[in-house]
Amino acid sequence: MQNLRYVGKNLFLEKLSIVNILKKCKTPFYLYSENQIIHNYLKFTKTFKKTNPIVCFAAKSNSNVAILKILGKLGAGADVVSGGELLKALKAGIKSNKIVFSGVGKTEEELKIAINKKILLINCESESEAILVDKIAKKLRKKISIGFRLNPNVDAKTHKKISTGKAENKFGLSIRNFKSFLKDISTYKNIRLDALSVHIGSQILTDAPYKKTLSVMYKLIKQLNLKLKFVDLGGGFGINYSGKEKIINLNKYSNLVNSFSKKLKCGIIFEPGRSIVGDTGVLLSKIQYIKKGSNKSFIILDAGMNDFMRPALYDAKHKIIPVSKVKSKIEGLIEFVGPICESTCKFGTYKNYQKIKENEYIAITNVGAYGSSLSSNYNTRPLIAEILVNKNKLKYIRKKQNLLKLINS
């Protein structure tokens, strides 16, 4: 996180001391750097400048309307996977002709919203979905642009729980089944095949699976002599969570994509999420208790797995750093855990961590993607606040959920 640094002993985000923020804001809460979001988006678009793609931010990674609004003002579109995300994107001012609707289980109600809002593409993931889109469009007397999401059977070499491009995954249509459906597509008069789409997984750190996917897509499109407006290449670009991970060289991939686009004479759509917002946020949490166990000490935080699910769901490792540094160390092993009544409510284990005390604060880093968007009310806990920093200013972009409203809802 470029805008997260220590000034002396204290942690700062942009130009604000987190110690001072904590005097005003009660933990736990998410804290984001607006300028890091802007920097990441502009860097991504600059990398693919030759191709000039439509960049549809993956709203599932962080669907806060204020963050969507920042990206919309920069020219971003949105990749959505629910009717709710679609309506949030529109509320944020993102243009409907820059919205693509993905997802394997779109309901009839959601598809009606997408059709009526005149979005760019509905990326169908099954024959049945395409038939349903045609049926709804016929009733509404419209002709709808669709894409078909293909499953290219490419292993992205990522965590099995975020792999989406192998034959065993639920996403997309097999190439064999797509070819079969293509024979009959002309009988459906209210849909128009304008795109093919792929998304092979998330937190991908090498360009090798992307190269393979481009090759599969190119051969298929040429073999079938398809004339497409767009090829949607998805997202999945990884970030450096640990400080030691070597991330993908997007400049090399950009050249491949540009060549691919020119040969096929089609536009390109990307759906980045994590690479735009992942390294823009921290989760601030207070140390409630320190409890000695038989072989380690438990650092019990006021943030739980309901606030931040990634470690429990994906075995994800996020660096946990103190808000204020000291030189002295705790001997032995410590584990940061939360209050939820599950053994999986834990965030990381450290040896020889700096000395910390009850009522002090830590920051869990790189939580801008799939942090707040995966949070829940498990154990009847209110959703926590989200705060945005811009230089030396901060503003709430989501207030903490009211407990009384929660229990009465």
Structural commentary:
The protein is of the alpha/beta class and about 400 residues long. The chain has two domains: about 5-30 and about 280-409, Lyase, Ornithine Decarboxylase, Chain A, domain 1 (Beta Barrel), CATH 2.40.37.10; about 35-275, TIM Barrel (Alpha-Beta Barrel), CATH 3.20.20.10. It is about 30% helix and about 25% strand. Strands 4, 14, 15, 16, 17, 18, 19, 20 and 21 form a nine-stranded mixed beta sheet that branches. Helix 9 (about 250-265) links the parallel strand 12 (about 230) and strand 13. Helix 8 runs parallel beside helix 9. The relative contact order is 0.16. Residues about 160-165 have low confidence and may be disordered.
The radius of gyration over CA amounts to 23 Å
What class, by secondary structure content?
Answer: alpha/beta
CATH superfamily name of the largest domain? Alanine racemase
Mind summarizing the main beta sheet?
9 strands, mixed
- CATH C-level class of the largest domain is Alpha Beta
* Unreliable sequence segments: 161-165
CATH architecture classification name of the largest domain: Alpha-Beta Barrel
The general outline is elongated
Summarize model confidence as the mean pLDDT. Answer: 94
The counted number of beta strands is 21
| Overall tally of domains | 2
Would you give the CATH topology of the largest domain? TIM Barrel
State the separation between the terminal residues, measured CA to CA.
38 Å
Number of helices: 12
Strand content: 15-25%
The amount of helix comes to 25-40%
